[in-house]
Design goal:
Length: 228
């Protein structure tokens, strides 16, 4: 496993935001190539705060990256199963076609990220701020979005079957052609856009979809498909 004992880190950026260091990595990936990419990012970020982690196609299993700043990180087609991103700042990161099964995105700031076609069954986004994130054509079955902010999130043609959205906040969240059967919805509030698939062959929109949410304890307004 790679270690970065010799990396000298500054105490903070000009904005007094601490930069990542080798010691701030709680657990390194098992894979040597992923370790090398993470180590390289930490070394380069010590000199340039605009550097982004390049982790495309790599296997980060075993990593605990909690608390790191990973803005604009490239995790395209990466293996991230079970990885902890707890308390991370990962705005505009790219997770396209990655595997985030069981990964922990608890309390993350994840604005404008790309989760296109991710495999994310059982991933946890509890208390996450996901404003503007694109999660289209994604497998997010049984994912946990409790108390998350979902403003502007697109779940177009994704599978959220069995997901937990209790206490989450929606703002023009797109559930268009999304599978939403067996959701846990108590306390979900805000505005969503349908139509949505509430069963294998049942699609609901407008008032019918809104009533479906209300019957399950959600305070949801469904925006009309074709507003007048």
């Amino acid at each position: 496993m790679l270690v970065a004992d010799g990396v000298m880190m500054s105490s903070g950026t000009p904005n007094n935001v601490p930069r990542p260091s080798a010691e701030s990595v709680h657990a390194w990936p098992y894979d040597r190539a992923a370790c090398a990419a993470l180590n390289s990012y930490i070394e380069r970020r010590a000199e340039d705060e605009n550097v982004a982690l390049v982790g495309a196609h790599l296997d980060f299993r075993g990593a605990d990256l909690r608390g790191l700043e990973l803005h604009r990180a490239d995790f395209t087609e990466a293996t991230l199963e079970g990885v902890s991103f707890v308390d991370c700042m990962i705005n505009h990161a790219d997770f396209t076609e990655s595997s985030i099964v069981g990964a922990k995105f608890v309390n993350v700031e994840m604005i404008g990220a790309d989760l296109f076609r991710v495999s994310g069954e059982g991933a946890s986004f509890v208390d996450a701020w996901l404003s503007g994130t694109e999660a289209e054509f994604a497998d997010l079955r049984s994912a946990d979005f409790r108390n998350a902010f979902l403003g502007g999130v697109s779940f177009v043609k994704s599978d959220l079957t069995g997901a937990d959205l209790r206490g989450a906040k929606a703002e023009h969240t797109l559930f268009t052609n999304c599978k939403i059967a067996d959701l846990r919805l108590t306390g979900l509030s805000g505005t969503v856009v349908g139509p949505s698939l509430v069963g294998s062959d049942t699609e609901l929109a407008d008032e019918l979809l809104q009533n479906w949410f209300h019957e399950r304890g959600a305070d949801i307004t469904v925006a009309p498909i074709h507003p007048s």
